[in-house]
Amino acid sequence: MGELQSALDALAADDVRSLAPRQQLDRITEILEARNRLDAQLARSVRAAELQQAPEDDGLKSMQSWLRGHGRLSPAAAGQLVRNGRALEHLPALAAAFEDGAVTAEQVAVVAPVVKEDRRTAALAQDIDLAEVDRTLAAVAAERAIAQLTRVVHHYLSRLDPDGPEPDPTDERSLTLSKFSDGTVVVRGQLDAIGGEKLQAALEAITQADRPRGDMRTRAQQLADAMVQLADNQLASGDLPFLRTVKPNVIVTIPVDDLLDPATGRAAATTGFGGLVSSATARALACDGSITPVVIDEHGMPLNMGRTKRVVPPHLRKAVELRDQACVFAGCAAPKYYCDVHHLQHWIFGGETSLENSALLCERHHTKVHHGFRVERDPGGRWRTFRPDDSEIVIGVPVPV
Length: 401
Fold this sequence. Notes:
This protein has 401 residues and is an alpha+beta fold. Among the domains are: 148 residues, no CATH class; 84 residues, no CATH class. Helix content is 46%, strand content 12%. The chain has 15 helices and 14 strands. The strands form six sheets. The protein has a three-stranded antiparallel beta sheet. Strands 12-13-14 form a three-stranded antiparallel beta sheet, with no helix packed on it. It has a two-stranded antiparallel sheet with strand order 1-2. Helix 3 crosses helix 4, helix 4 crosses helix 6 and helix 6 runs parallel beside helix 9. The protein is elongated and about 75 Å long. The C terminus is likely disordered.
């Protein structure tokens, strides 16, 4: 291990920025191969430690819990590392390719389901040569893209029990939502093939419909925005099932003083599921939402609840959609059904809820105008967009998308 540490120190001392492009890529290839070899040794050691019940020495019950606590791995990463170690015991050819650096830990994870106990039993019952299966999969993993390896594994598993019952797709679905103290939600889960196809089709439709000019978002950001938009569309449609006698909706509670304060007001409002958002975000939601005034006494108990009022009535929204057709922020063309109706002068500060004081803005740009940007309509009916420093965003030659 000392020699390994010395080698890593020497690697870290390289002046990588001075290398030519070809040298850069060759270096990366060598490092990837070395990482594969290290991952192979890690999986082997994890399995050996599991067999010896080594975590008990640190007062822990399982190798997964030890990896989460001492290795600071996520539950998913720890579980996969343990499963890889177990699988490699039954896949000597794949293990050898892994130790040589020709196969990645991710590829091992793809092959691992092949040697689950019930599948090994089914293979032996059909006189399938598992050693040949191992050699074939090791060769595919070393020579082909991971997508092709995945298809080969799926092909094998689907034919291992061709007459068996179709699996219930709900058995293959799971979703967890973990919330941090600031209200940020982490989404983890998996879907069966058809469920995943449905979600991908829905997200892709939204992603392709909302591609503003000069979009610099990553693919991951685009998909995340699409998922939020999918929820927005469903909530706005009013077709979701009732939730404890009321239609599901986004609830934000904020003291009136914070709502009226033009400052951003970090962590001033509370969402229905306990997240904290700024007063600026609350005002953005209030542009095109419903308001219920509640009087609170000095002990925090509600004294009086006023009548809920829809800020933008349906007939006004239709008029704004007819006029604007899409998000009016410069360079964006998000369709009207993705947009909120924004008050150019917020109604909290005396702005009228009228056609002249309204503009269609997608979620991303609605947030922008509540944090310094500005849109306004000139006498000729043309929408103009300004940065926080009052400089105008002018669209020149269209950028191909």
